[in-house]
Amino acid sequence: MSVTQLLPAIARPPYPLASLGLLLALGMAAPGTGLQAAEKPTSNTSGASTTAENDVALQKVTVTARRRAEDAQDVPTPITTLSGENLEAQKIYKVQDLQQVLPSVNVAYVHARQSSIAVRGIGNNPASDGLEGSAGVYLDNIYLGRPGMAVFDLLDIEQLELLRGPQGTLFGKNTTAGVLNISTRKPTFTPERSIEVSGGQDGYFQGKGTVSGALTETLAGRLSAYRTRDDGFIKNIHNGDTLNGGSREGVRGQLLFEPSDDFSLRWINDYNEEDSSNGTMVVYGAPALYWQRAALVGASPLRNPDDKKVNINGRQSVSVHQGGSSLEANWNLAGGYTLTSISGYRYWHFTPANDEGLNVPVILNTGVEVHDRQFSQELRLASPTGGAFDYVVGAYVFNQNLGNKTFTEYGPLADLFLLPAAFNASGALSNASSKANGKVVTDSYALFGQGTWHITDRLDFTAGLRGTYEEKQAKVERFAPQGGSPVGALGQGLRNQQLGAYNSGDLSLHNAAPSGLLSLSYRFTDDLLGYASLSHGEKSGGVNLAVSSAPTAGADSLLVGPERANDAELGFKSTWLDRRLQLNANLFWTGIHGYQATTLYQAPGSAQLVQVLANAGSVRSRGLEFEATALPIRGLTLNVNGSYNDVTYLSFKDAPCPGEVSTVNPNAVCDLTGERVVGASKWIGNLYGEYTWQLANGIRPYIDAGYSYRSAAEGTLDNSKLSRIDGYGLLNLAAGVRSELGDGQLDASVWVKNATDTDYYLAAFAYINGAYSASVGAPRTAGVTLRYDF
Hints:
Blueprint: H1 16-28, E1 48-50, E2 56-58, E3 62-63, E4 70-71, E5 79-83, H2 84-89, E6 105-109, E7 115-119, E8 135-139, E9 142-143, E10 157-164, E11 178-184, E12 192-200, E13 205-214, E14 219-230, E15 234-236, E16 242-243, E17 246-260, E18 263-276, E19 282-285, H3 288-296, E20 309-310, E21 317-332, E22 338-353, E23 363-382, E24 389-410, H4 414-418, E25 432-454, E26 459-478, E27 482-483, H5 488-499, E28 502-503, E29 507-525, E30 528-539, E31 542-543, H6 550-553, E32 559-560, E33 563-576, E34 581-602, E35 609-630, E36 636-651, H7 659-662, E37 683-692, E38 700-710, E39 728-741, E40 744-753, E41 761-766, E42 772-776, E43 781-789
Parallel strand pairs: 8-11, 15-20
Antiparallel strand pairs: 1-2, 3-4, 5-10, 6-7, 8-9, 10-11, 12-13, 12-43, 13-14, 14-17, 15-16, 17-18, 18-21, 19-42, 21-22, 22-23, 23-24, 24-25, 25-26, 25-27, 26-28, 26-29, 29-30, 30-33, 31-32, 33-34, 34-35, 35-36, 36-37, 37-38, 38-39, 39-40, 40-43, 41-42
């Protein structure tokens, strides 16, 4: 379905699309409605500006990390910002690419459901529909309840902010690792238009455009749309298809109403969809048992993951439909106070079809379909600034209704490949099908406040407090299996154990959670700020929306308690050399208690171990982060950031054992205490530079280069040697020219991503028979881009 069709009637919310249709009509009729072409200032991706003396200096960057507009260098917390222009210059348009430009960030990406963002090594658990992420993602001040809601092209972005450490005293939902805050460009009363087309290898094409301008003296509109497609880069030797490609498209429409200087109302509606074969994974590592079983059923899985090839006989597809609507109102009240109301509604529908990775009929189709609806309401009151004390107080309400459907269709060879030798003729699984439903409804309520006491002109003390009460109601049901022919009591018993009907009944989880912040900052000079802070944050408990251990351990074993974080920061922010150099750095220490992870459970009297979600133990994350931006000579901008993260399990007993152990001893129990946490690279570094020079007639050639490096990381929660992801570095290059053309600016460039054609992997995943699969990073891709702003 294309974006021009928008939503099917059954999934269409009643109000978001009204303004989209209006804005589409306005965009078509732009010349007669006030959306006129006009000169646009020269694009500046470097962050430099020209002063009255014609000297180059770094621009100030405004952030809203403390829920009011401030210079980023005045905010005493670790924060990294990227402008929309910078993202466009570096061709960063997918969330999974953000780890190439941000410190302390790891993105584990398979597809929209199996994706997670970790900050400082916290948050890389495999996706669980009943758990929230440790790192929160916000889009235009709306919390996204599932990480997959952020898996769309980053379109028409104003700014991206990464806040590290627990964030609870000001942001809507509690998080233990950090916040990724994405802001899109607002409608403008000055006409703006842009159109961009890119093409490259492997059938890559991307087209996007924006139109913005005044509709009346008090009403402005903005409409942005994109379509991206590519053929993919993983070859299926079974039928010759190319996988891990497809199409994504989306549209965002906005209205901005400003009847006076004291009131503004912004209404945003967006819709995104994906139809792809993303999620195609290669066999990354496997013990002897996997290869023996594959030979037993006549399968031929490929052994070298770097070949970027698979041999599968089933479908591999992903369908995603998502969107939402938000309404933000701001009132400037008497006495300098500001009242803000933010209402948001979002929905997300994910439908997969997955093969088990073999070219024989073991599993014909499997996956987890997810429907998610959420509503949030936030009210904030910000005091005036300039006095001895200023503050922000507010209230937040969040409701989420999520349901999933797990399905598996087994083929005739299922028993032979999936069951031990004693049971491989039992008929327990072969030709059967299994379905299960899970549902969780979340209601969250919070009051929060944060204030700063300006003790002197240079010394500030900040304190914040938040109280959250949350309820979750859940249910898990697995239906009786269909089809197949179990042989005798042995086969029927095993089938009941593996696929038997189960109903958890109504489950409930209640939690009252405090969050707090204490921070002291001192401005040693006008260009040097030092700070120290202590904070506490909590991530809510959750529900395992899979049957797992419930039939033997009881339904309460599906409930997971909250994850709590204590954090300490010590850092500085500085500007040097007449604003030609900016250097920020910080030390951090974070302790996580009740770490939410997959652990092992053994039923009394049973020899079988099963995996369950639980509060596994405690984790410590500590390290150093730094960022620097420099303008060494006119036209040259350099940016470097990096981090050292030491992230270890202080306690993780009863951990899942790696495949090389569990396939030899199925009842083994492992202890990961003292080992590194999954997905946490110890060293991360990102370097970016742009050089621009001026020729005659307003022609400005430029060269861009970016290099990102991350050291090796554990690939899966069991720290298997077979799933460890090697360190790698990626080099991206671009060259182009900007020039005035007519009433606008033309930007033409050629680029190459992963210029050295490095083999790398975005995530690993525990697979069948002790094996591990992996999500492959994109190979070298070259292309061209034409952009016109007018």
